[in-house]
Design brief:
The complex is a heterotrimer.
Chain A: H1 2-28, E1 56-63, H2 69-82, E2 84-91, H3 93-105, E3 112-116, H4 122-126, H5 128-131, H6 146-151, E4 153-154, E5 157-158, E6 160-162, E7 171-175, H7 176-181, H8 190-202, E8 206-209, H9 226-232, H10 236-241, H11 251-265, H12 281-287, E9 290-295, H13 299-306, E10 315-318, E11 328-330, E12 335-339, H14 346-356, H15 359-368, H16 386-395, E13 399-401, H17 403-406, H18 414-425, H19 431-448
Parallel strand pairs in A: 1-2, 1-3, 8-9, 11-13
Antiparallel strand pairs in A: 3-12, 4-5, 6-12, 7-9, 7-10
Chain B: H1 4-28, H2 46-52, H3 58-88, H4 94-102, H5 109-120, H6 126-133, H7 147-175, H8 179-188, H9 192-220, H10 224-229, H11 241-251, H12 254-284
Helix pairs in contact in B: 1-12, 2-12, 3-7, 3-9, 3-11, 7-9, 9-12, 11-12
Chain C: H1 2-33, H2 37-40, H3 54-62, H4 65-96, H5 100-110, H6 119-128, H7 135-159, H8 164-171, H9 176-187, H10 189-204, H11 208-213, H12 222-233, H13 237-268
Helix pairs in contact in C: 1-13, 3-13, 4-5, 4-7, 4-10, 4-12, 7-10, 10-13, 12-13
The chains are: A alpha/beta, B mainly alpha, C mainly alpha.
């Protein structure tokens, strides 16, 4: 038995290993950037006219949920046209930042890597000046929404391409027939929201679907309404950035967390919040067992697609109601694509970005991704329905940036805040404890980053 | 006749890929190494002070790791021993049971995590469904998301996966015990317990040493079981040292992360050393 | 006599129950792998209305299982073979020549069972050795992680091999290499098979090393492919189940074929050490 096994292993698979080595040898051969075959210059908008097909593989590291199926289809088309294959490595979101950091630190980054944009984070998190390629000269930068470009810039240079839905704010999505049956309308204050929840709970339906098990979703409730904090206490954001104020001492922040905690303690998240998963949102919302959830404006379309017999028009929207918020929370920071400066195929990667941002391809992406309703590029045809348009007409008048993008050193500790908030839901921490921890982690990051405001 | 290069090949690989990174880690644990700054500065024992300071959560992780280790050693040893005793005796379908009982330990932990997340699921997971079906609805629990149950549930999965492995090692030990001892005991009219106490356990001591040391080192290093089931949650309820190491790394505080690994290594070496000493003394006594 | 029979009955029932507990989660996966997506969404023991074999085809195609299977097989197989070879040689020399230095080296290597990996500093070593992002690098790392425990098992086993064999070999004019390969290694075979199987199974189940040290999904082993698959299809439990079955089938087969060696090897190796 042993003989047979080792024989198979040795003969069959040593070959596999060798071919593997050959592969990596091919990667390191000096072609790419300087060679004449990689002709299409940065301005090449029409990648389809690329002359010769190349046998090149671009490795692309991204976190789960960042690469849409439609983008993978586009990548196949790209390969048909150019011969350049995109090798997607989708890493589970909870390991992503570790894996990416390890690879950046080693100088062994993949050709393209994903990363959350954010004007405060680009330097400290990704060290873009060393790790990423300057994309300022690319043609598509001119067509991209300037707000998004700002979030992908560091020291006035653009380092990443963002293709995302600018209307993808996290807002409350509610079941309209259910609200109507109970004589409820979209709440306009926290008080009204509590009353609505109470009525829904009394009717035997769980008011809110909250997938805590994913670790990141329940955090949204707190930093997303930065716009409201700024209305209630003007200048707070600037003070926090300049380290003249601590999270711990900001009454509005503590109150906001207390209200979140109140929702939990009153049982509005139901019995199963801790085991609910984000991926099951559509199913559970369609079932009618839950009345509301915190999601993007694209959720109704997703429900209609995922669950036969459900209708997108059954769902309405209102902003996160904590702290009586009635304004729209906007986050121009989004999952973005960087080209690694150590890549041997920088031109090909740029070519891929140009291909993705061709108007037809952007439209294809938008039309085939149910989560997107519009894109952060000029001249795409948005697919808002009446309900969505009405929402933006009502609440879009006043808007502001979410805290994880407006305040430095918040976004990197997202998952830690998630653990703290989960502990608060279990009554093991108080809102004050959470704020103290946020301060502590901000201090730690700021000091190690050598931030002059922390000296 | 026994040239040094026989040892050297394994030794070189081991030193290069296991010892050197660890030594680098120990050195870096005395620095402020992090993902934000390029310069690395020596900061003495600061990272260790952070770990052992009372307003941090690390002691909680170390405590949890200790609880996990002790609980899994005790449970796996007892269950593994019982199984080995049963499988070694006149049981029907002996080899079937041996195969089946060892099976969980060959399944990847990642897969075990996925399966048990579904089994523990409170609404339609297998366990709660089964409890409801036999009229014990009040026993249903949120196995992985209730702070009171999460850690116990994680430990249970680890025992499910590991008990068969321990059984196999102990079984090997049992089979090495000469049957003449038992025959002599039978003549003296010794019962099952007497034989267990005076023949089986003492003679099994070398095997028990092996399993205990293996379980000990495995338990202290535990990461994947916790990671795939709860990732330290809910909140920090099931955090162990290694999950904390990873969250330090994701915050970019490599210095604190490596210091934690170093603390773990020191604990493991000491415990492993004492375990071997202790058990070899018992063996002689 | 009566109590003996009662004892046996109790033992039979008890072990049956425990075996059932060991089996249930696996059976659950098997049953659900044949269901439709809707049927499998509650992951129950209800039998599928009709057997959907196409789930497996879907999984093989979408999960890129063929490729990752070959990768896993190569990584674990080669790592286990090199591991046995180097560990057996080291264990042989360490056990036979118990000089002060060698005793120290033995404990130094055994310490490795307790050595926690430092993923970040290891990257530097991988870069210096040009093994980062290579398949060979993963084989080396897998081998290294298994060496300490393998030497631990083989060391005990070598102790049980009579020294007279060496002497006979020397009289026949064997050099150390010939002595080892012609005389000693064949005697070590049962233990070597044990070590091979354990090393193979351990590395087959590992997923963090390739996640950190490989740069291409084409080089990913099976565990990572499952991880990735679960991330993408976690709503489709039927597909996830099918994926899991195809992943654990090879290890179960290796185990079933080799299980008698595991017990045999452990009897003579680890325990007597």
């Amino acid at each position: 038995m042993k003989k047979a096994l080792s024989l198979v292993l040795l003969t069959g698979l040593a070959g596999g290993l060798l071919s593997g080595c050959g592969n990596s040898g091919g990667d390191s051969s000096p072609q790419a950037s300087g060679s004449p075959t990689s002709a299409p210059s940065q301005a090449s908008e029409t990648a389809s006219s690329a002359p010769a097909k190349k046998d090149i593989t671009l490795s692309y590291l991204a976190s789960q949920d960042w690469i849409k199926d439609a983008e993978m289809k586009l990548a196949e088309k790209f390969e048909e046209q150019t011969g350049i294959h995109i090798d997607y490595q989708i890493v589970p979101s909870d390991q992503y930042s570790n894996v990416l950091k390890a690879k950046l630190a080693s100088g062994e980054a993949p050709d393209i890597f994903g990363g959350q944009s954010g004007k405060f984070d680009l330097g400290p998190l990704y060290d873009v000046e060393n790790n990423a390629v300057d994309l300022s000269g690319e043609e598509w930068v001119q067509r991209e929404d300037p707000l998004f470009v700002e979030q992908t810039s560091w020291n006035s240079k653009v380092y990443a391409l963002t293709i995302w839905d600018p209307s993808a704010s996290w807002i409350m999505v509610y079941n309209k027939p259910l609200f109507a049956k109970l004589g409820l309308s979209a709440p306009k204050s926290y008080e009204e929201f509590l009353k609505a929840c109470e009525a829904i709970k009394a009717s035997g339906v769980t008011p809110i679907y909250e997938p805590v098990s994913d670790g990141w979703h329940h955090v949204l409730w707190f930093p997303e309404i930065g716009v409201r904090y700024e209305q209630l206490e003007a200048g707070l954001a600037d003070k926090l950035i300049a380290n003249q104020e601590k999270f711990e001492n900001a009454a509005v922040l503590e109150q906001s967390l207390s209200q979140f905690s109140e929702l939990v303690q009153k049982g509005y998240f139901g019995e199963y919040a801790f085991s609910n998963t984000y991926a099951d949102t559509e199913k559970n919302m369609a079932d009618g067992k839950y009345a509301m959830t915190l999601y993007n404006i694209g959720l109704p379309a997703q429900i209609e697609k995922a669950v036969p017999g459900s209708k997108a028009s059954d769902y309405g929207f209102f902003p996160i109601p904590l702290m009586d918020n009635q304004s729209l929370n906007v986050n121009p920071a989004a999952p973005s694509k960087f080209i690694s400066s150590s890549s041997k195929h920088i031109e090909e990667a740029k070519q891929y970005f140009s291909f993705l941002t061709e108007p037809d391809n952007l439209q294809f992406l938008l039309d085939n991704e149910p989560k997107f309703t519009t894109l952060n590029f000029k001249d795409v045809k948005a697919k808002f329905n009446d309900e969505q348009r009405a929402f933006f007409d009502t609440y879009g008048q006043t808007s502001g940036t979410v805290y994880q993008t407006a305040i430095n050193y918040v976004n990197p500790q997202w998952m830690d805040i998630g653990k703290d908030m989960a502990a608060m839901m279990n009554k093991q921490m108080t809102p004050k404890d959470i704020l103290k921890n946020i301060d502590k982690r901000r201090d730690q990051q700021a000091k190690t980053a050598g931030d002059s405001n922390w000296k | 006749m026994y040239p040094f290069y026989f040892i050297a090949i394994a030794l070189i690989f081991y030193v290069a890929f296991a010892v050197v990174p660890s030594l680098m880690g120990i050195y870096l644990s005395f620095t402020d190494w992090n993902s934000y700054a390029k310069a690395i500065n020596f900061i003495g024992l600061d990272n260790y002070r952070t770990i052992f300071s009372s307003d941090e959560n690390y002691m909680h992780g170390i405590r949890n790791t200790a609880v996990f280790t002790v609980a899994t050693i005790v449970l796996k040893t007892i269950i593994g021993l019982l199984l080995a005793l049963m499988v070694n005796r006149g049981i029907r379908m002996k080899s079937f049971h041996r195969v089946v009982l060892f099976m969980p330990s060959v399944i990847p932990m990642l897969v075990v995590g996925i399966i048990f997340k579904s089994i523990y699921e409170p609404q339609h997971g297998l366990i709660n469904e089964a409890l409801r079906a036999i009229g014990l609805s009040s026993w249903t629990q949120h196995w992985l998301s209730d702070v009171r149950w999460a850690f116990k549930s994680v430990i249970a999965v680890d025992v499910w996966k590991g008990a068969g492995y321990i059984m196999v090692i102990l079984l090997a030990g049992l089979q090495a015990i000469s049957s003449s001892y038992y025959e002599a005991a039978d003549i003296d009219g010794a019962g099952f317990w007497k034989k267990l106490r005076y023949i089986t356990l003492p003679l099994l001591m070398p095997s028990l040493t092996v399993t205990t040391v293996l379980n000990l080192l495995y338990g202290l290093k535990i990461f994947d079981t916790v990671y795939v089931l709860t990732n330290g949650g809910p909140g920090y309820a099931t955090d162990v040292v290694y999950t904390q190491v990873f969250s330090q790394f994701s915050l970019g505080s490599y210095g604190v992360g490596t210091a934690l690994i170093t603390v773990l290594f020191v604990i493991m070496t000491l415990m492993g050393f004492f375990a071997v000493k202790l058990m070899s003394r018992e063996e002689q006594g | 006599m009566k109590s003996k029979r009662l004892q046996a009955a109790v033992a039979n029932v008890a072990i049956g129950a425990i075996s059932l507990i060991a089996l249930i989660p696996i059976l659950l996966i098997v049953i659900n792998a044949f269901k439709t997506g809707a049927e499998a969404s509650s992951m129950s023991f209800a039998l599928p209305r009709s057997f959907r074999f196409d789930n497996f085809a879907t999984v093989v195609e979408k999960g890129k299982l063929g490729r990752s299977f070959l990768n896993s097989f190569a990584y674990s197989g080669l790592a286990a073979i090199f591991c046995i070879l180097f560990s057996a040689m080291a264990a042989f020399a360490l056990s036979r020549n118990r000089s002060r230095l060698n005793r120290m080296l033995y404990f130094f290597i055994i310490l490795g069972i307790a050595l926690p990996l430092n993923y970040f500093t290891l990257i530097d070593v991988m870069k210096w050795t040009h093994l980062m992002n290579t398949r060979a690098g993963i084989v080396v790392l897998y081998m290294v992680t298994q060496i300490p425990f393998s030497i631990f098992i083989l060391f005990g086993f070598v102790g049980g091999v009579p020294k007279e064999l060496d002497e006979a070999g020397v009289i026949d004019g064997c050099g150390p290499v010939r002595l080892f390969f012609k005389v000693i290694f064949p005697v070590l075979r049962p233990a070597a098979v044990t070590v091979f199987i354990l090393a193979f199974l351990n590395t087959w189940n590992e997923f963090l090393l390739p996640l950190y040290y490989l740069n291409s999904a084409q080089k990913w082993p099976m565990t990572l492919a499952v991880y990735n698959f679960f991330g993408q299809f976690q709503q489709s439990w039927n597909l996830v189940s099918a994926d899991i079955i195809l992943t654990i089938l090879p290890v179960l087969i290796v185990y079933l074929l080799g299980q008698r060696f595991i017990i045999a090897g452990m009897t003579s190796g680890a325990v007597k050490g």
